[in-house]
Design goal:
The chain has 405 residues and is of the alpha+beta class. It folds into 2 domains: 171 residues, Four Helix Bundle (Hemerythrin (Met), subunit A) (Up-down Bundle); 191 residues, Alpha-Beta Plaits, CATH 3.30.70.270. Helix content is 50%, strand content 13%. It contains 12 helices and 11 strands. A hairpin with a 2-residue loop joins strand 4 and strand 5. Helix 3 packs antiparallel against helix 4, helix 4 packs antiparallel against helix 5 and helix 8 crosses helix 9. The radius of gyration is 21 Å and the shape is globular.
């Protein structure tokens, strides 16, 4: 089985196919489609930050050459360099937002954060504008990946500007809403930049040159976007004719965005880590080839090697029922947890351009059916998973950081 990286957008088949043609090879994770916002666009700015933190260049004095070296990153192009900078800097900015989130949602002593939040968002907004200036250069060189990155940066810049403007209203509910929106924008930036980076590294056959710290995380070795792409790359390299069975499960926690708006992103992160622990606990230890990866946001993927869709559906339904028997506890309040999941068996001639959209289409059937259910596609379309109730133990996940650790 497999999870994790963190609600990543639906893959766009048109752009995925175009990139496949352009790169002559389609990596495992479909390229998301980056549409320009219909809102009024901001003018593209130049380098609005101090030397060392702004527009990435070739000069060692730009502040990033040493940072990339320390991060065990060796970019082979300006597009890759910018992608790594976006990835690393976004992780740092996300941690800063999480600190504000913890202060705002502190059960014992919540504090106002509107001033600090606005300052942080303004700073990150300026940085995004400097990245846009660089991505435009790549776009003008007719690079499909440069164009995709430009679209991504522009959309998230607009999202952050909307958050900043929304902070004019300083009521607690308004701040909570803008904080949640900002966290979503940062998560999307992180996840989609990873997807673009996966395309680039797969096309250049350099996935396995990436340091382990970017391929797994946590004590269980949960796979990241890059780790999941590397896993598929290894599997198909060993089995180019797709003789061995492979089934994939995509699990999506239901209505998780609403939950995090109530408890905060920091506790939402704890919840996702604990759900990942549950998935690892349920992996087969004695047979098969099972891995867990974080696909995006609250979505996990489980890779089940040497497993038919029939057997995968049985295991997936047990997992769904286990999550249904789980609750999140914060203070004296508890929240029920449910999940929707999709199971597919990868066809012998299928590549990711075919089976990833099929996996997401199968998951969409769960949403249409009301969530908290599973569907399986063995090759002839999605069908509901109908299995008896298993004997499942009740689980409670504590979200108070002081007690959860």
């Amino acid at each position: 089985m497999v999870t994790i990286v963190l609600a990543l957008a639906v893959a766009n088949l048109g752009l995925g196919f175009a990139l496949a043609v352009a790169l002559d090879r389609l990596p495992v994770l479909s390229m998301p489609h980056f549409k320009r916002s219909s809102k009024t666009g901001l003018p593209v700015g130049g380098d609005t930050t101090e030397q060392g933190d702004g527009l990435p260049g070739n000069s060692p004095g730009d502040g990033w050459s040493q940072k990339l070296q320390d991060a065990e990153v060796d970019p082979q192009s300006m597009t890759e360099r910018l992608l790594w900078i976006v990835k690393l800097e976004t992780s740092l900015r996300r941690e800063q937002l999480l600190e504000l989130d913890r202060v705002f949602f502190d059960l014992h002593s919540p504090q106002p954060i509107v001033g600090e939040l606005k300052q942080e968002l303004e700073s990150f907004h300026q940085l995004l504008e400097s990245w846009i200036a660089q991505s435009v250069m790549e776009k003008e060189q007719a690079s499909p990946l440069g164009e995709a990155l430009d679209e991504l940066l522009l959309d998230q810049t607009l999202q952050l500007r909307s958050c900043i403007d929304g902070l004019a209203e300083a009521g607690r509910d308004d701040v909570a809403r803008q904080l949640a929106t900002a966290m979503t924008a940062v998560n999307v930036l992180r996840d989609r930049a990873d997807a673009i980076l996966c395309h680039l590294l797969t096309a250049e056959d350099r996935l396995h040159c990436v340091a382990d710290r970017y391929r797994t995380f946590g004590e269980h070795g949960t796979l990241t976007h890059l780790g999941l792409a590397a896993l598929f790359d290894e599997w198909w390299a060993d089995d180019p004719d797709h003789v061995r069975l492979v089934s994939i499960v995509m699990l999506d926690l239901d209505r998780f965005d609403s939950f995090t708006q109530q408890v905060g992103a920091a506790r939402g992160d704890i919840a996702l880590l604990r759900v990942g622990d549950v998935l690892h606990d349920l992996l087969r230890k004695d047979r098969g080839f099972d891995r867990v990866a974080r696909y995006s946001g609250q979505r996990f993927i489980m890779f089940l090697g040497d497993t038919s869709s029939k057997n995968a559906a049985k295991g997936a339904e047990r997992i769904r029922q286990t999550i249904e028997a789980t609750s999140f506890k914060l203070g004296e309040e508890t929240s029920e947890v449910t999940a929707s999941l999709a199971v597919i068996e990868v066809g012998k001639t299928e590549g990711p351009d075919a089976f990833i959209p099929r996996l997401e289409a199968t998951l969409n059937e769960c949403k249409k059916a009301g969530r908290n259910c599973g569907y399986v596609d063995a090759g002839d379309g999605p069908a509901p998973i109908r299995l008896p109730q298993y004997q499942i133990s009740v689980r409670v996940i504590e979200l108070d950081e002081r007690e959860a650790g």
